[in-house]
């Protein structure tokens, strides 16, 4: 009896940054998943606007979901299409969440294959799509090769070699019990395994866009009290999130919100104003502001445009020279506003949080800055897709089991079973690793042969 | 199966002669011998009856990789099997050397022999071992032959080549044999057999009425039973002097002087290889294995070489306990033709010549067990072919036999292929005790076992399933017996009714309970792959004109012509996108047929 097909998920629009991206899910578990995501069974073939929250309840994006029950769907199986913003960050986070919810990454052409097998399209249609997939596959392959020539390939091959040598250590003692092998060194195997585990985790963590891009760019809005920081946050978000008042010291604690700007995700952090002569209660809030500033990727220094430079506090002056800073001269709508072409290398922009004037330029400045960051990180960090992250997580779980087995003295055949599980997970990224490679290592390391 | 069969052999006295080591079983091979028993083959029972030392290997590595191994009385093994064949209904045996094949219109029609007698047959199975243009090397000395003292099949190769079958060369080697009374065993360590032998045949379902040992055929000896008279093996090691002799004479070795073009196995290196490749290893372990009870000949396991004979004598005498050794037969290397097995379907039938099957060392394997299980499958399929029944194809998840044949026909081999447990991705499903249960379906379908034995296996399987579900549900008290066993709080044997079950049933039940999670995990993987294994691909699919397929994959697919999508996916270089495309075409083909 053939097993039930998996529920699969994949990006069905071209990868890369576009305004919109469509993620498609199909298979037996789609109906239940759709209901969970939409908060109730979705009506067929109607676009629903929803906030997409991941399993931990974090908001990922504001999306459109359309549910197509079988058989009237592209593949002929229950299908859910989610269109989200085209940011690679969002798509990846969304796919990762779907994987965590039990979907598996679709293979190339798998939707079309299912469509054909379910009688939704005929052979010539399938062939036409397959042509495209093959072409796209070639391109993906090309991209993969490019990637594989770079950092990812080196690191994956390194991990695979180390895993193979561990596996060979174990297999040698299983397959050649009567040979004159050196004393089996469990402790060293465990140590090597732990190192491998750490490096796998590390690759999984840094692999995507670097930590910064994964969690979003930490963007701290800072300035003197009443400069209009909370007003700027609200303007950037497009909604009244933070309390605004003419009283200085309105914001006592920081608050955080995510927005998408261009291809990037920003963690916007509004903070308590930096007062040179704080009241005891303000002091506490300012401490937290400084903590946030210390770990910021990007700082929006908000300055009340009516205050000339001579009146800035020392702290603001120092911030304005920080390489992470963009200087935002606020309240450009007021007549007392003085434009300042500051003697600093930080970009300086005049805006009005009240009217929205100058916001477009501010967005552009932010995007330009973050683009520059990604370039810097991109050279070193390896951009692996959600599919890769899925495989690395699987490998990690297997390696952990293998280590636990070794530590508890479980049968070697079970440890080997987990190591092989990890190897096949690595193989999802680099292409299948043939057992011959393990045997090569084994025969190179041990003198086998009575 | 009842088909009328002719066995042609160059020498009837060498039927089932072990060319090399007088041992059967060991890692992965032991499991295969049990599989052979489950499919009605003779190897297991022949080993049990002629074995003179039994050991269960790998007791500590886990039940799935435990394998039985036995030293056999070489001559007894050979003669008992010859005798068994003589008693076999529908089988004719005849001594003649096959010199060529009769082929017309792409189909085999029979063969020609050196006696100018032709034999016609609907199907032919070729099992020439190391005999095709066999060439033996001892230093610079060369002799034609498949094995020392044997002939070489000189002309048959040409007949294959003429039929379009590609041949290549491989090589293997064997150590010297030594006279026992010239050995000083006091300088060696004794290796005894297990107190309680582990047998290869499933005696619990076999009812061994016809059990016999050649030596006792006419004289039933009182108290004799398989495994009752065990002998010992002995271990010693090479010395610094041995290493020096090898290094000083390397240039004289056939393998190192470029005399040999064939490729040898990595796992069975000659002593030259060992000292060259592992130069920092000061000494190598050697085993002295008796060749039988009625002989004083010993096999020196670990000392395979192609050095000249005079060097061999010095080499042997540099070893503790062998200072005064008398060599009865020299070590030698042998080169022979093999037919790369990717030229075969999974049924072991040639893709080039219909009705022609290949099995054993000619397919690039090495080892008695590997040869035997191929012979069994090829024989069954040669009969199925005549009857127009679908072939016996064993899955990789069902048996090592399945792994072996799938590897051979899908990937081919560059060195003599030997089975290792690590070649099986579903190794935990292939424990030796379950061979009969795993292969029950095939044995029944192809009529390989008698009705009564099938019945007993079925009952055994049912009892095992009954006990597994009973122990998983019955409480003891509080938690289930299954959980208690997995937590080592209880042993299954403590269950009062279970203790009364037979040992094989108890062992298999315990295995399934203790490994429950792992077995389920492997089973799930198998089920996933099964989706692909069930999609059959037409043999005549024109890969080169399939739309969407990459050229590189199409060429590989066209060469291998896989029978299922699963097999296609195991061909190196065929990627998931190719598989999607094949799946679509396979389904389209099916739809076309049913229309
Ligand atoms: C020198 C040597 C060393 C080996 N070393 C090892 C080792 O270290 N480890 C290991 O696992 N295995 C080893 N083997 C391999 C093992 O012996 C074989 O794998 C196994 O016996 C192969 O079985 P087979 O049935 O294919 O062929 P074989 O056992 O070789 O039998 C072939 C039979 O075919 C007959 N025959 C051949 N040609 C013709 C013809 N034209 N007409 C009629 N009859 C013919 C022969 O008479 C012979 O009976 C070695 C073999 C040799 C010769
Ligand atoms: N005219 C004008 N008024 C503004 C602008 N931005 C903010 N304000 C006003 O300035 C006052 C302070 O604004 P907030 O946004 O609360 O300032 P803040 O920097 O968050 O102040 P604290 O949280 O107290 O540090 C409010 O009365 C706003 O309405 C602007 O662009 N133009
Ligand atoms: Mg505020």
The overall pLDDT average of chain B reads 92
Determine the N-to-C terminus distance of chain B: 36 Å
Widest sheet: strand ordering of chain A: 3-4-5-2-1-6
Form type of chain B: globular
- Report the mean per-residue pLDDT of chain A as an integer: 83
How many E-type strands of chain A? 12
The helix-strand sequence of chain A is: EEHEEEHEHHHHHEHEEHEHEEHHHH
From the structure above, extract its key features:
heterodimer, A: 450 residues, alpha/beta, 6-stranded mixed β-sheet, 14 helices, globular, B: 595 residues, alpha+beta, 19 helices, 20 strands, 16% strand, binds flavin-adenine dinucleotide, binds guanosine-5'-triphosphate, binds magnesium ion
Summarize the structure.
Chain A is of the alpha/beta class and 450 residues long.
Question: Can you describe what's shown?
Answer:
The complex is a heterodimer of chains A (450) and B (595). Chain A has 450 residues and is of the alpha/beta class. Chain A is built from 14 helices and 12 strands. Chain A has helices spanning 30-38, 88-100, 110-117, 123-149, 151-175, 186-206, 210-215, 229-237, 280-294, 314-320, 359-378, 386-408, 412-430, 435-445, and strands at residues 8-11, 20-26, 48-53, 59-68, 79-85, 104-105, 217-223, 255-261, 264-270, 298-304, 325-330, 348-350. Chain A has a 6-stranded mixed beta sheet. A 6-stranded mixed beta sheet of chain A has the order 8-9-7-10-11-12, sandwiched between helices. In chain A, strand 10, helix 10 and strand 11 (325-330) form a beta-alpha-beta unit. In chain A, helix 5 (151-175) runs antiparallel to helix 13, helix 5 crosses helix 14 (435-445) and helix 12 runs antiparallel to helix 13. The two termini of chain A are 45 Å apart. The relative contact order of chain A is 0.11. The model of chain A is unreliable at 136-149, 207-211 and 376-383 (pLDDT under 50). Helix content of chain B is 34%, strand content 16%. In chain B, the strands form 6 sheets. Chain B has a 6-stranded antiparallel beta sheet with strand order 14-15-16-17-13-18, with no helix packed on it. Chain B has a 4-stranded antiparallel beta sheet with strand order 11-10-19-12, with no helix packed on it. In chain B, strand 10 (135-138) and strand 11 (141-144) form a beta hairpin. Chain B has helices at 29-38, 43-50, 74-87, 156-162, 203-206, 240-248, 271-277, 309-317, 368-387, 400-411, 435-438, 440-445, 451-473, 481-486, 503-514, 516-533, 551-560, 565-570, 576-594; strands at residues 5-9, 23-25, 51-57, 67-72, 91-95, 98-104, 107-113, 118-120, 124-126, 135-138, 141-144, 168-174, 177-179, 189-191, 233-237, 285-290, 297-301, 327-329, 332-338, 356-358. The model of chain B has no long low-confidence stretch (mean pLDDT 92). Chain B is built from 19 helices and 20 strands. Chain B starts with a strand and ends with a helix. Chain B is of the alpha+beta class. Chains A and B meet through helix 3, helix 4, helix 5, helix 13 and helix 14 of A and helix 7, strand 16, helix 16 and helix 19 of B. Bound molecules: flavin-adenine dinucleotide (FAD), guanosine-5'-triphosphate (GTP) and magnesium ion. Flavin-adenine dinucleotide binds at residues 8-11, 14, 19-20, 97-98, 127-131, 146-147, 153, 156, 172-174, 268, 334, 360-361, 366-368, 371, 418 of chain B.
